[in-house]
Design brief:
Length: 207
């Protein structure tokens, strides 16, 4: 894969992410984490729980390079081609403080690349638990990564997303109980607020 093609993919992904962040309601997650050292930060958790957005929140205030490997145009990229991502990134940005590699487990041998560049950058890696917590990762990144596990919205985050203010009045408590019933029925996956809840959760569970 050529550097120019990777550059175009990164620019396309940045435009799509910008549109998403402007279009959708994004809340601050309650995880009290920060990135302050050059190492690998592994964000795991179930699909659709908000790992990608949390990665961006972790990098807030820093110049970050983000690549989403769920993009079909990156399918088949080899580990020994991953350095081209840095080259393409520096063609786009003058400075890179943080690197975000979304769903990097789609690239076989990614652990070696991350192990090398983590010496120079904080590297945020997202993916599913089973595919990231592999024997290869344990071999190449032992003692060289910090793990974050992201779950769907807590009830407090759910209330924040729904703009529900907690009031210690009879009406306020009744409203809170009503929202708790809704939360217990639909859970905290962010996209349940956009689709038919039962159908979406059934499909998510099945997948």
């Amino acid at each position: 894969m050529e550097v120019e093609e990777i550059r175009r993919i990164i620019l396309d992904q940045e435009a799509l992410l910008k549109d998403k962040l402007e279009r959708e309601k994004i809340i601050e997650r309650e995880y009290k984490y920060s990135i302050s050292h050059n190492t690998a930060y592994l964000i795991t958790g179930p699909r659709r729980a908000g790992k990608s957005i949390f990665a961006i929140q972790l990098a807030r205030g820093k110049e970050y390079l983000r690549v989403d490997f769920d993009d079909e145009r990156l399918y088949g990229i080899k580990a020994n081609e991953l350095n081209k991502i840095l080259e393409a990134g520096y063609q786009i940005k003058k400075k890179i403080d943080v690197i975000i590699l979304d769903e990097i487990q789609n690239v076989e041998g990614w652990e070696l690349f991350v192990s090398r560049i983590r010496e120079n950058y904080p590297v945020i890696v997202t993916g599913s638990n089973a595919r990231l917590m592999s024997e290869e990762m344990a071999t190449y990144l032992t003692g060289r990564h910090l793990d974050f596990q992201v779950f769907p919205f807590s009830f407090r985050e759910y209330l924040k997303y729904k703009d529900v203010k907690i009031e210690e009045t009879t009406r306020g408590i009744a409203k809170l109980k009503d929202e708790l019933r809704n939360y217990l029925q639909q859970g905290g996956f962010p996209e349940t607020f956009k689709f038919n809840v039962r159908e979406y959760l059934t499909n998510l569970y099945s997948d």
